[in-house]
Amino acid sequence: MKRLVLAVAAIVVVGVGAWLLAVRMESPQQAAARAEPPAPEPVVVALDRGYLNGPVSMTVEAQNQQSVVVTPPAALTGVVTSVDRSAGDTLSPGSVPFRVNGRPVFVLEGAFALYRDIRPGDEGDDVLALQKGLLAAGYALGRPDGKYGPRTQAAVWSMYRAAGYAAPEVAVGAPDAAGAPSPGASAPETTAAGTGAAAPSDGTAVPVAGGGAAATVKGPGVLQSEVLTVPRLPAVVEGITTVGTRIAADTGLLTLGTGQVVLTSTLPQGSVGALTVDAAARFTDDSGTEATARVTALAPTETGEVTVSLLTEGAVRAGSSYVLTIDNPAAEDGERLLAPVAAVVTRAGRTYVYVREGMAFREVAVEVEATVGGVAAIVAADGDGGGDAGDGVVLGEGTEVRVG
C-alpha cells in the first residue's frame, strides 16, 4: 500500500513539472505575436444637433434708458425738512418726494418749469402745462385751455388734499387806497393753510389772512416753488436729496430714471465671440418665471470692452441683476447637425464621415457648411443619409475601419 501511494505521488509530481515546462516554453512565432500591440480600435464620437456657436452666459444689470437730474426752480429756497421717497421707488404724477421748509414739493410731467406763481384768472402757456400735468396725474378738469379757472383750481385742491396738505390761498383783487379793486391786479401776499385744513373745491371766494378786510380768494394758487416738472412720468428714483440739504441753484434734488428698462453688461472683447444683435436670451425675472430678452446693441467702449444691451418684457426692476443664457448667440437660422472637425475626412476633393452601423461603418459624403473651433456643421451630400444626433462617427483621419 505504501508503494502504491508513493507511485501516485511520483506521477503527480512528474505531470505538474511537465505542465510547468510546457507553459514556460513557446516558439519564436508565439513570442513575436505576443509582443505585437493589439489592433487599434477606432475612436467613435456621437454627432450632435444644435447651434454651431455655443451658448453664452452673462450677468446683466437692469437700468432705465435715460437718467434725468432735477434741479430746483429759482423760486425754491430754504432747507429740505423731510424726504418721503428712496432709491428704487417709482414717482407718479402728483407725488411728493420731499418737503422744503415744511411744505410739499410736487412732481408733475411737463416740458418746462413754471415761470411764475399762478393765480385765479391767469392765462398762458404755464397754465396750459399745469393743466396737462394735472390730467396726467388723474385729476379731471375738462379740456385744457390755458385758463386757470374754477375746474383747474378744484383739481389743484384735490392734488394737495390727496397729499395731506391744503393748497396756498392767493389774494386776488385787493382794494386800492381809494377802496376800489385794482384793475386786474392780484395781491402778492399768499398764505398756506396748515396740513389737513379744509379747502373749497368749487372756486368759492373765502377770506385770506393778511389780505385786508375786503381781500378775497377765488381759488387756490400754485406756487412755482412747490412744483417740479420733469419730462416723463412715472419715473424711478435713482437718487434723491437728503434732509438738511440747503437748496441752491445747482442742487441735484432728484435723479430719475425714465423710459424702458434696459439690461446691460460690459464684457471683454474676447468674451463676446459670435454674439450679434437680435440674439435671444432667457432668464428668470422678478416674478420667478422664465422670461426672454433680445440683444439690441453691441457698443465698443473706450477701454476696449463691449457693452451689450438687451430689451425685455419680463418683470425686472432697475438696479437689480440677472443671469442670462443665450443659446444661439449668433442668431443662426436654426439648429444644424454638428460633427467634430476631426471626424471629417477629405479625399479626392470630397468630404466624408464614417457612421457606425452595428460592427461596421458606412461611408457618407457630406458638405461642410461652416466650422467654429473644432466643430463643423455638416449636411449630407447628394441626398445621402448623413446620420443624425446620437449616431457614432469615427474620429481621426487614417484610422482603419471596416466599411459595411
Automatic annotation (TrEMBL):
It comes from Oerskovia enterophila. Residues 176-201 are annotated as: Disordered. It comes from the Bacteria. This is Peptidoglycan binding-like domain-containing protein. Residues 124-159 form the Peptidoglycan binding-like domain. Pfam families: PG_binding_1. InterPro entries: Peptidoglycan-bd-like, PGBD-like_sf, PGBDSf.
